[in-house]
Specification:
The protein is an alpha/beta fold and about 550 residues long. The protein has 20 helices and 21 strands. A hairpin with a 6-residue loop joins strand 20 and strand 21. Helix 15 crosses helix 16. It binds glutamine (GLN). Its EC number is 6.3.4.2.
């Protein structure tokens, strides 16, 4: 089948769930038997998301091949239940870098290289490349930002050029926002009309409007949008807030979005039929499992990337949060996640006692010294009070620091990330990472992507995975220092996962504790609603058993 392309862009404002819309579209097309390849385009100059502050930009998601990208890639993977590569994440920075390098190598044969068409052409080349690699029937391209922004105009230009060449196989959807102003009390369509106009001025008429809002769109407003925006009523899709994101594919199918997409892209709806009941059986079972979950599973997440002052959670821990939900649902519980500011645990020791009220504690990944002593206190509390504990990356490293200090008697033990002169560098930088740091090669220079992990038979980890070996995704510069392995093990910490190629500790656990596991890798990146990560399931199971 000739590859079809659906460009999805935002209207009115960002942060309204465009990524979830794209992920849900990907899911419903996959459930009809189509091969789908989602691509995220970010209009910033950064080559990847690795150098960006998570507070500002949300989580940095890492693909198997080690690309640090936008968190939407995580949503795509979770909804599609497929692993994607770095090719699915495109930034303005990458495009310019490639074009300039090609020009320097005389790749343009001496002619003048211009913003148009050479930049959009490179975008198109990359989209086609993704289609070829994935043998995709449909490529869904999420263009970051909103229509009318200066930044993403060249990506819309790529869509326009593609559509000009092949109008039957290229479609455009606008995910727009319909506010309900407090004083008016009803949904307003005008901002969406203006967003459509902005898109039209970039030469693109949308085929679909996905109308995000607190409520469903009513018939008069659908008619109004159809009239003023030149979009068939049947292609105006109501997308009210959902109780949880995994519900959205079903909501879309209720609006018959799948059929309409197939029509618009000229794909046979007889061949790629809608599954009976709207969505395919595994996804339906997932929704049923979520609906039936009962009894709270209260997990505290001890971190520092919270919006300052307000305690509103940023997206910084998106995959961790989703993985915790997958784990809780898998054991039939309703997840209740509470954010604890690590710095508060430093200032106020009474805050520590609150931790005893939870079923489980999780210390996620992080960087630098801020909040570290608070995290160490929380870890000690979990160890001593036998509260199920999961430490991810920095969380694992700090659990080793805590154990070294308070159980092995190595006072002042630390990670050299925080104290380069510590007497006991139990966590230390890898030699090649140190060289890169010294040369100030920072972007893309961590230990990134998928690495093997051999599991120690009959450990907590091996029993969770039900395997002898696994592969997990990484993003870090520091490691457990093998010089301290002997004393740590002698005092009771078990190294239950090791990378066999380089003898690096991947998992450290405490036998005899109800559940105390730290991972050097990021298991949250591979947890999927249809396939919850085994360590999150084991953690949830142990947490559910805890009597508070
Ligand atoms: N800062 C630590 C390191 O670089 C941990 C990184 C992380 O948690 N992703 O090794």
């Amino acid at each position: 089948m000739i590859t079809r392309y659906l460009f999805v862009t935002g209207g009115v404002m960002s942060g309204i769930g465009k990524g979830i819309a794209v992920s849900s579209i990907a899911r419903i097309l996959k459930d009809r038997g189509l091969r789908v390849a989602p691509v995220k385009i970010d209009p910033y100059i950064n080559v990847d998301a690795g150098t960006m502050n998570p507070l500002e930009h949300g989580e940095v998601f890492v693909t198997e091949d080690g690309m640090e990208c936008d968190q939407d890639l995580g949503n795509y993977e979770r909804f599609l239940d497929e692993s994607l590569t770095g090719h699915h994440s495109i930034t303005t920075g990458q495009i310019y870098q490639t074009v300039i390098t090609r020009e320097r190598n005389l790749g343009y044969g001496g002619r003048c290289v211009e913003v148009v068409p050479d930049i959009p052409n490179e975008v198109i080349r990359r989209l086609r490349e993704v289609a070829r690699r994935r043998r995709a029937d449909v490529v869904i391209v999420e263009v970051g930002g909103t229509a009318g922004e200066y930044q993403n105009i060249l990506f819309l230009e790529a869509a326009r050029l593609m559509r000009r060449g092949n109008p039957r196989h290229i479609a455009v959807a606008l995910v727009s926002y319909l506010p309900i102003p407090h004083a008016v009390g009803e949904m307003k369509t005008k901002p969406t009309q203006q967003a459509v106009r902005a898109l039209q001025s970039a030469g693109l008429q949308p085929d679909f409007i996905i109308a995000r809002g607190a409520q469903s769109l009513d018939a008069p407003r659908k008619r109004k949008l159809a009239l003023f925006c030149n979009v068939d009523e049947a292609r105006i899709i109501s997308a009210p807030d959902a109780e949880y994101i995994y519900r959205v594919p079903e909501l879309f199918e209720r609006e018959r979005l799948g059929d309409r997409l197939l029509e618009t892209l000229h794909i046979s709806s007889r061949r790629y039929r809608r599954p009976s009941g709207g969505i395919a059986a595994p996804w339906r079972r997932l929704l049923r499992r979520i609906d039936r979950a009962h009894g709270e599973l209260r997990i505290a997440l001890i971190g520092k990337y919270f919006a300052t002052g307000s305690f509103v959670l940023s997206d910084a821990y998106l995959s961790v949060i989703e993985a915790l939900k997958h784990g809780a649902w898998a054991v039939g519980r309703r997840p209740v996640l509470v954010w604890i500011d690590a710095e508060q645990l430093e200032r106020d020791t009474r805050a520590l006692a609150v931790l005893g009220k939870f079923h489980g504690l999780l210390v996620p990944g992080g960087f630098g010294g801020r909040g570290v002593e608070g995290k160490l206190r929380a870890i000690r509390f979990a160890r001593e009070h036998r509260i199920p504990f999961l430490g991810l990356c920095y969380g694992m490293q700090l659990s080793v620091v805590e154990f070294a200090r308070n159980v092995c008697g190595l006072s002042g033990a630390h990670t050299t990330e925080v104290n380069p002169k510590t007497r006991h560098p139990v966590i230390d930088i890898l030699p090649e990472q140190e060289r890169l740091l010294r040369e100030r090669v920072l972007g893309g220079s961590m230990r990134l992507g998928l690495f093997r992990c051999a599991l120690r038979p009959s450990s907590v980890a091996a029993r969770a995975y039900k395997a002898r070996e696994t592969q997990e995704r990484h993003r870090h510069r520091y490691e457990l220092n093998n010089a301290y392995r002997e004393i740590l093990e002698r005092k009771g910490m078990r190294m239950s996962g090791v990378n066999p190629d380089r003898d690096l500790v991947e998992i450290a656990e405490l036998p005899g504790h109800p559940f105390f596991v730290g991972t050097q890798f990021h298991p949250e990146l591979q947890s999927r609603p249809l396939h919850p990560h085994p360590l999150f399931v084991a953690f949830a199971k142990a947490a559910a058993r805890r009597k508070r």
